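W.,

You were right to be curious about this one. When I first looked at the sequence I had no strong expectations either way, so I just let the prediction run and decided to look at it fresh. Below is the sequence, 131 residues in total, followed by the output.
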Amino acid sequence: MTCAHIVNVALRKLPGVESVDVSLNKALVSLKLKSGNKVSIPQLWQLFREKGYTPKATKVLVRGEPANLQGRMQLKVSGTNDLIMLVADTDSGAAWSATTSKVGQTLIVQGIMIPGKDLKASVPLQVSQVK
C-alpha cells in the first residue's frame, strides 16, 4: 500500500466527503465535500498529522455569513456552530471590502488557512475572493 492510498482511504471515511485526489509528488490533496458537511479544516489537519504528514497552507471555499463580533470579522459557517476569524489577504483588498460590506449575508469566501503547531489554536482565513 502506498502512502497516497492510506491518506486517500482515511479521507474517504470522513462523513461528507464527495471526492479525493492525493498527489504525493505535488504534495497536494484536493478534497471536495458534499453540501451540508460538518468537516472542519482543523479536523483534516489532525488526520494528516496522524498519518505522518505536516499540513501546509490550505486553500478553502467556505459558505457562511460574515459578522463583526467584538470588532473582529468572523464567518459563521453555514450549517454549523463554527466561527472562523477572517483577515484581509494583503493582495485582495477588494475581497476584504466586499466581505465587510455584506455582514449578515450568505457568501462563499475563498482564501488560505495556515496551520500552526497547535492544531487547537484558532487559525484565521485570509480572504482572497468573495462570491
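Here's what jumped out at me. The chain has a mean pLDDT of 91. And, maybe more interesting for your project: The beta strands are 17-23, 28-33, 58-69, 72-77, 83-88, 107-113, 125-130.

Coffee later to discuss?

I.
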